[in-house]
Specification:
Largest sheet: 3 strands, antiparallel
CATH class of the largest domain: Mainly Alpha
Radius of gyration: 25 Å
CATH superfamily of the largest domain: Intergrase catalytic core
Strand content: under 5%
Helix content: 40-55%
Structural class: mainly alpha
Oligomer: single chain
CATH topology of the largest domain: hpI Integrase, Chain A
Length: 309
């Protein structure tokens, strides 16, 4: 006679949602996440709690979660913003399941159409990279920062943490300390950017321990202030695009079009995997058709045959 083993289901602990949320924040601190990550989680969870009427973590069921999504869609929320919420909530839900605060539910990203973000054009870059004619130090700082973004493709959160001592003008390298994947690494300092930074550093008194792009008072710029200064600067130069992250897309596109390899691009942009690097190639695929007939092996061979080479 076949014996049947009955597995006892885990007993769910009746835990107030607020208490589960507090335990989750402590968990995030122990994992030593970047400063911004817990803030994103907190914002997502606070928003989610404001939209549902449950008091205990175990009351978060598949129906409750899907009801929240339907409610957001009916309110006109975009799938892109909803997926951003889902990513944060999924981490919290998984934590609650591990702690036996709630039963597992299916949390999948919603399918969204691929939108291609149009990078800065060459004409727009020429406006932004033009040397300032005013005596405004803030304009000089932002000008240098824009040149830096175009030359490196670094994230804004990385740029505001760079100190002058991180830039080695002799070895032509830049040390990136604060990066998304928490892996410090070096990137090359281009000759053009070297000249820009040297000119910029002549505009103010500084020490090696100062931030490369500080506030007017000499303190570290916060992310919002940095983004605001770029926005104001771009508009003053007649450029309607104001996204700091768009410089990263622009760097990737132009690097690929110039013949740069995916492995090198991955290292320069600090991607943990090749997935995002491939994404850049895919979204700018139409631009990769430029001069394709001059680079394609078949076309080159046919031309050489026709020329009698």
């Amino acid at each position: 006679m076949r014996k049947t083993t009955i597995l006892n289901a885990k007993e769910i602990k009746r835990t107030p949602l607020k208490e589960a949320q507090s335990a989750f924040y402590k968990h995030c601190r122990l994992k030593n996440l970047t400063e911004q990550t817990p803030r994103y989680y907190e914002e997502d969870l606070s928003y989610f709690r404001s939209k549902i009427s449950v008091k205990y973590a175990d009351e978060i069921t598949q129906e409750v979660f899907e009801g929240f999504l339907l409610q957001e869609l009916d309110a006109g929320k975009k799938v892109t913003s909803l997926n951003s919420r889902i990513r944060g909530l999924r981490v919290f839900f998984n934590f609650c399941v591990e702690r036996e605060y709630m039963k597992p539910i299916s949390v999948k990203l919603m399918k969204e159409e691929e939108t291609i973000k149009e990078p800065y054009t060459d004409a727009e870059l020429r406006r932004l990279l033009k040397r300032p004619e005013s005596n405004s130090w803030v304009e000089w700082r932002t000008w240098a920062a824009v040149n830096y973004l175009v030359a490196t493709g670094n994230r804004a959160s990385t740029v505001i943490n760079i100190k002058i001592s991180d830039v080695d003008f002799d070895e032509m390298t830049i040390k990136l300390v604060k990066v998304k994947n928490r892996r410090q690494h070096f990137i090359p300092l281009s000759p053009a950017l070297k000249e820009i930074l040297i000119d910029y550093l002549k505009t103010w008194e500084h020490t090696p321990d100062d931030y490369l792009f500080p506030s007017y008072e000499g303190n570290q710029l916060n992310l919002r202030s940095f983004q605001g200064s770029i926005r104001q600067y771009n508009i003053s130069r007649g450029v309607t695009k104001t996204s700091v992250h768009l410089f990263r897309h622009t760097f990737a596109k132009n690097f690929i079009l110039a013949g740069g390899g995916m492995v090198q691009l991955q290292a320069l942009l600090g991607h943990s995997t090749m997935d995002m690097t491939r994404h850049y190639v895919n979204i700018y695929g139409t631009d990769l058709k430029r001069n394709f007939e001059l680079l394609n092996p078949l076309d080159n061979i046919k031309r050489s045959v026709s020329a009698g080479v």
